Amino acid sequence: MTTEDYKKIASKIPHEPGVYRYYDEKDIVIYVGKAKNLKKRISSYFGEKKHQQHKTKTLIRNAVKFDYTIVETEQDALLLENTLIKKLQPRYNVMLKDGK
Fold this sequence. Notes:
The protein is globular, with a radius of gyration of 13 Å. 26% of the residues are buried. The longest helix is centred in the last third of the chain and has 15 residues. The termini are far apart. The chain is of the alpha+beta class. It is 37% helix and 19% strand.
């Protein structure tokens, strides 16, 4: 997914808490994340690349799309994120994966 792809849909992303998912070309979820502000969090993946971790750059390079689910609170986002990571076991989520 490129910065240009993101810019085309950025205005539609809400400033609300939620969980977002990145997908690869096979439509497999490769990363699940939570945010208290979806727009700010998702936009952080497409900003200044110089300070991004290698994992983040690789994730965005392999992602072809993303979607999100809006929730009521940041706590709800944490719970949903944890549930989805355990269920889907996305490749780029290294935390929470081992079922602890």
